[in-house]
Amino acid sequence: MPLSQAAKDRVVNDYFPRYPTKRAALMPALWLAQDELGWLSVETMEEIAELLEMDPTDVESVASFYVMFNRRPVGRKLIEVCENPSCWVNGASQTLERICHKLGLDPHAGHAGATTPDGEYTVRPTECVAACDYAPAVQVNWRYYGPVKPDDVDAFLENMERFNLERDGLVSAFGTHEQRFKDGSAWRVDPAENGAPPPPPPPPPAESKPEEKK
Ligand code: FES
User: Fold this and answer.
1) Tens of pLDDT along 131-180?
2) What CATH number does the domain located at 5-69 have?
């Protein structure tokens, strides 16, 4: 499915003015496309490349570098288990394996993840989600849950809300990516801090003509 005209207009009208170059708007443009379409197909990345006047392989390089960009369709519930050190030493790999086992999925599918045939769940490992003090931390559709120890997996799948860290204010809500754009704080870049050349100096005031001698 192609990117909507509304999304393209938003990139041009809202995002481009915030950045010194069009290509600097790549990350928010990818988020916007993923929010709209659910994942980033090759065609979507080509559309973004055209919009940002970039080579499609450069767009794909960025999208494939960050684990949070979906390069294949994901289920309605995207379960991501952090496997970085704090979570790993607290049993994250076993948590991931047990979740996959319960849902009949391959625990070794890597960052691409594995999806149930009914499209309800995708499960994948992820990198640190900044909830290390609630290890093993899990994200479901970008919301924080934890700790989800291996023995907690049955209870977690039965009632995720019990493990929701945002519910009791233990961690602040990540929110949607759209909220990050609306307040402008997450992605706004000062061109002067981004290696852009300084703006040209203002033109000198027009010289006043010397008074003619009588
Ligand atoms: S190491 Fe898992 S949340 Fe930081």
Assistant:
1) 999 999 999 988 899 999 999 999 999 999 999 888 766 776 554 443 33
2) 1.10.10.1590
- Ramachandran bin of 76, using left for φ above 0, alpha for ψ from -120 to 50, beta for the remaining angles: alpha
Answer whether 131 contacts ligand 1 (Cβ < 6 A).
yes
Domain with CATH 3.40.30.10 in the chain: 77-163
Using most ligand atoms within 8 A of CB, pick from 67, 93, 128, 171 the residue to mutate for ligand 1. Answer: 128
CA of 188 to the centre of ligand 1 (A): 26
Phi, psi of 95 (to 5 degrees): -60, -45
Q: Pinpoint the alpha helices (H) of the chain.
A: 5-10, 26-37, 42-52, 56-65, 85-88, 92-103, 153-158, 177-182
Taking only the tens place, the pLDDT of each residue in 179-191 is 333 333 333 333 3
Any idea which fold 77-163 has?
Answer: Glutaredoxin (3.40.30)
Say if residues 3 and 48 touch (Cβ distance below 8 Å).
yes
pTM for the whole structure: 0.76
